[in-house]
């Protein structure tokens, strides 16, 4: 029996700012990612006020995919990829974000990139906004706190939908739009370009920015479908299931509310409206959000075609003694360890069955096609004489693919594709490190930015090549 559908989209995922480099090439503007320094597991990345001399900004050079893409795509073809998920760097197209006209050189780069992929029958899968909005929109407009961003974003979307209407079918609007629900400074910045000022309520700000993004996304879906009715335009969510710490019903309620509080973005993008619990919450908090009746119509008319999501880890939550009736204590303050699971070197819990759980959860709630557009293991690889033995990565991917197969064969979920994250080593979004490697292709570059940039196949390359060749039938 063949488990995976015959046109299953086996692929690999990246994001422009994490691999392209060439941060100023041919008119590109400064993005959010260009003002983030290198960090580590212990030291958070800094967000600097503009690009400053003497700082190390790893995204400025990435792995120089901008100049190596032909060679890399050749390797992707050898691997057998059916699709390649990347993003369009908004700042290549609109360097500042608010220009009247797009930058032709930036558009041309993606013409060439997509043509190169299609030459090998590799479908581009494209995210419009992946943690890389123009920095100018932050300094001049305050990021997504400002309604004007809707116009800037939809203009960008229209231009690229129009330009690549024959090359790209699968799109996603905002990468991991729900990360910001965690309310930490990092995600507020990377998702929405928000920098919370003294006296501001971070949550209220996040709900407002999130609303403008959801309106922008819904408008983009409508624009895209007008330009090409065959477009498949998805949302993209960070999925990390929250399990209750115990059978205590209060823990169960806590886990339920944590899921609701993380996936209301998904509710809006899939169902076209805000969930009742959230509206109650806003009323009780006395938030004054700018949500018009017209916006509500837009949300209804711009629901997504599929659910794209990343899956790396699961979490366990426990109700605190002081939990209010709404169970809205910040989930990160209520997380406890899961003694049944091992963690990666960066502390991410490895939970393949959680992926099956997630596939079922999304299906029950939204009944839409699902696309796993990120999944993988960040690990330190040892390079020795041109060889990289990475059995830990093979085991991770195998265990997750096995659960995908069960979700399809036993649970009947409609899973259309799988693009493991960082198919080629790139700059970590969270830490800015190169040494947190996900790829099946190794890139010779270290955390200090030194290296030849030469590409090497890891053991996982040959393994994944065989998985794709057998359409997921043989995972040995
Ligand atoms: C997702 C992002 O959150 O996780 C990627 O969409 C990111 O951009 C990936 O790289 C892995 O996270 P990290 O911090 O290990 O790079």
UniProtKB/TrEMBL annotation:
Pfam families: Glyco_hydro_1. It is an enzyme of class 3 (hydrolase). It comes from the Bacteria. The keyword Ligase does not apply. Its EC number is 3.2.1.86. Keywords: Glycosidase, Hydrolase. GO terms for cellular component: cytosol. The keyword DNA-binding does not apply. Gene3D superfamilies: Glycosidases. The active site is at 374 (nucleophile). GO terms for molecular function: 6-phospho-beta-glucosidase activity. Belongs to the glycosyl hydrolase 1 family. PANTHER family: ARYL-PHOSPHO-BETA-D-GLUCOSIDASE BGLA (PTHR10353:SF85), GLYCOSYL HYDROLASE (PTHR10353). This is 6-phospho-beta-glucosidase. It comes from Bombilactobacillus apium. The lineage of its organism: Bacteria, Bacillati, Bacillota, Bacilli, Lactobacillales.
């Amino acid at each position: 029996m063949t488990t995976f559908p015959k046109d299953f989209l086996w692929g690999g995922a990246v994001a422009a700012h994490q691999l392209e480099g060439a941060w100023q090439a041919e008119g590109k503007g400064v993005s959010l990612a260009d003002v983030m320094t290198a960090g580590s597991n212990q030291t958070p990345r800094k967000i600097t006020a503009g690009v400053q001399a003497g700082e190390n900004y790893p995204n400025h050079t990435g792995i120089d995919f901008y100049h190596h893409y032909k060679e890399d795509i050749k390797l992707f073809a050898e691997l057998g990829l059916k699709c390649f998920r990347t993003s369009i760097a908004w700042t290549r197209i609109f360097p500042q974000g608010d220009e009247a006209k797009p930058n032709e050189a930036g558009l041309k780069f993606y013409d060439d990139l997509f043509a190169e992929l299609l030459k090998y029958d590799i479908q581009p899968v494209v995210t419009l906004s992946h943690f890389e909005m123009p920095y100018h929109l932050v300094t001049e407009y305050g990021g997504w706190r400002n309604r004007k961003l809707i116009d800037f974003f939809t203009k960008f979307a229209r231009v690229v939908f129009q330009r690549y209407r024959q090359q790209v079918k699968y799109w996603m609007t905002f990468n991991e739009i729900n990360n910001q629900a965690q309310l930490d400074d990092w995600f507020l910045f990377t998702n929405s370009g928000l920098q919370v000022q003294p006296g501001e309520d971070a949550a209220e700000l996040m709900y407002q920015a999130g609303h403008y993004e959801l309106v922008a996304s819904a408008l983009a879906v409508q624009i895209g479908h007008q330009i090409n009715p065959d477009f498949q335009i998805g949302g993209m969510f960070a999925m990390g299931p929250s399990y209750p710490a115990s059978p205590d019903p209060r823990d169960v309620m806590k886990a339920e509310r944590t899921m609701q509080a993380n996936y209301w973005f998904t509710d809006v993008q899939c169902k076209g409206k805000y969930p009742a619990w959230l509206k109650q919450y806003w009323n009780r908090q006395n938030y004054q959000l700018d949500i018009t009746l017209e916006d509500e119509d837009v949300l209804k008319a711009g629901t997504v075609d599929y659910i794209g999501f990343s899956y790396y880890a699961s979490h366990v939550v426990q109700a605190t003694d002081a939990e209010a009736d709404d169970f809205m204590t910040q989930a990160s303050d209520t997380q406890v360890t899961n003694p049944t699971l091992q963690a990666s070197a960066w502390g991410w819990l490895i939970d393949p069955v959680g992926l099956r759980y997630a596939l079922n959860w999304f299906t029950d709630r939204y009944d839409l096609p699902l696309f796993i557009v990120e999944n993988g293991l960040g690990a330190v690889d040892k390079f020795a004489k041109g060889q990289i033995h990475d059995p830990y990565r093979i085991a991770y991917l195998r265990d997750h693919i096995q659960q995908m197969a069960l979700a399809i064969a036993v649970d009947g979920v409609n899973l259309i594709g799988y693009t493991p994250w960082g198919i080629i080593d790139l700059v970590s979004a969270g830490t800015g490190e190169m040494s947190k490697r996900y790829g099946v292709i190794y890139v010779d570059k270290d955390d200090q930015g030194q290296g030849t940039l030469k590409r090497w196949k890891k053991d996982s390359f040959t393994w994944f090549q065989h998985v794709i060749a057998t359409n997921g039938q043989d995972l040995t």
